[in-house]
Automatic annotation (TrEMBL):
<keyword id="KW-0732">Signal</keyword>
<protein>
    <submittedName>
        <fullName>Uncharacterized protein Peritrophin-15a</fullName>
    </submittedName>
</protein>
<feature type="signal peptide">
    <location>
        <begin position="1"/>
        <end position="19"/>
    </location>
</feature>
């Protein structure tokens, strides 16, 4: 009987812990910048493929919304898309849509 109670408590703990890390495909994937693991990491914006989130400081919970743009030496610019599998901006000819939370 005690073993069953321990297993139930353990299962409840695991379920509650996992719920904190569930990906919300309907959200915009904005990270919590007070978490130091997000600092300096480019994170996909689910709502806008031309932008990614970037935490510059752990003192603010709000990340910067950075647009994917490449500046060339001749003064021209190229707007790009954020490609999550690479974790970086790529040209539109290289970009493909990927499932959020995949």
């Amino acid at each position: 009987m005690k073993a069953a109670l321990v297993l139930c408590c353990l299962a409840a703990f695991v379920a509650l812990h996992a719920a904190d890390y569930v990906c919300n495909r309907d959200g915009n994937n904005m990270p919590d910048c007070t978490n130091s693991t997000n600092l300096g990491v480019k994170i996909r914006n689910f709502w806008d493929p031309t932008r990614y989130w970037l935490c510059n400081s752990t003192t603010s919970a709000a990340p910067a919304s950075v647009i994917c743009v490449k500046n060339f030496d001749n003064g021209t610019i190229e707007y790009q898309g954020f490609f999550a599998p690479k974790g970086d901006c790529v040209s539109w000819s290289e970009w493909t849509w990927t499932q959020p939370c995949a």
